[in-house]
Amino acid sequence: MDLHSHLLDTEVVGLLAGVYDETTRECTILTALPAQRKVIADDASITVEASEESLAEAQSVAESLGMQIVGWYHSHPIFATLPSRIDCETQEAHQRAFGTDDLCASASMENDASPVDASSEEDKGKPFLGAICGPYNPKLETQQSDLNWFVVLPDPTGRRGRQVVPRKLNAILQGEDRMGRRGMEEYEVDKM
Questions:
Q1: pLDDT in tens, 100-121
Q2: Average pLDDT, stretch 180-188?
Q3: Which of 1, 10, 13, 104 is at a distance of 20 to 30 A from 42, taking alpha carbons?
Q4: pTM for the structure as a whole
Q5: Does the pLDDT of residue 188 top 90, yes or no?
Q6: Angstrom distance (rounded) from CA 57 to CA 35
Q7: Residue 59 predicted with pLDDT over 80
Q8: 64-99: pLDDT as tens digits
Q9: Around 181, how many Cα atoms within 13 Å sit in the side-chain half-sphere?
Q10: Between the CA of residue 136 and those of 35, 100, 147, what are the distances in Å?
Q11: What is the Cα–Cα distance from 139 to 121, expressed in whole angstroms?
């Protein structure tokens, strides 16, 4: 995901594959699967959408590796990794498509958000995570990319009508120093 984000100065997009443990309610992301850009009329430097073909291919690759799609990512190359309105709408659509209207209670949230009761009828399935990678934001103090992990929940105030609000996730990043090979060689990186 970070490598893919560094390859272009426009937004990139892809899916995250891994496993979800229903017992511990932990989601482990094992690989990022870059997606080809869908041609859209809007300014492609600040908006991105994955093509249906590359999404289907990513799903197939994940299944062949014994994984499932557990999230998506995209980049904000030179600006803050805060989710935009379109990012929140896309995340909401993904959460609904993957059977989760709400996030499991084990996720840590900021902004005084109350977690959803994991034992309630509202918990309809596995979480679907969103990530925004900011590789070149000039406001960053170091050269390390800014990663923002999030989900969306219904606006608790009700002031926004049917809109959702983003909730930042506190992620625990683990892994090897070398880049994993699973998935990356399966794709040609987004070409513009």
A1: 645 433 333 333 333 333 333 3
A2: 42
A3: 1
A4: 0.75
A5: no
A6: 9
A7: yes
A8: 999 999 999 999 998 899 999 999 999 998 888 876
A9: 0
A10: 20, 32, 12
A11: 43
Residue 14's φ and ψ, nearest 5 degrees, are -170, 180
Contacts of 120 (CB under 8 A, 6+ apart): none
Question: Amino acid identity of 9?
Answer: D
The encoded tokens of residue 134 equal: 């900011």
What pLDDT score does 30 carry?
93
Exposed/middle/buried for residue 148 (C-beta within 10 Å: 0-12, 13-18, 19+): buried
Q: What are phi and psi of 62, to 5 degrees?
A: -60, -45
How far is it, in rounded angstroms, from Cα 15 to Cα 50? 9
Burial environment of residue 105 by CB neighbours within 10 A (0 to 12, 13 to 18, 19 or more): middle
- Distances from the Cα of 178 to the Cα of 134, 138, 141, 175, 182, angstroms: 20, 26, 24, 9, 12
Smallest Cα–Cα separation from 14: which of 32, 39, 31? 32
> Which residues, listed in sequence order, are joined to residue 35 by a DSSP beta bridge?
13
Q: How many helices (H) and strands (E) does the chain have?
A: 3, 6
For 33-130, where are the alpha helices, taking DSSP H only? Answer: 52-64, 85-97
In this structure, the number of other CB atoms found within 10 A of the CB of residue 168 comes to 18
Interatomic CA distance for residues 43 and 76, integer angstroms: 13
Beta pairing, strands 129-134 & 68-75: parallel
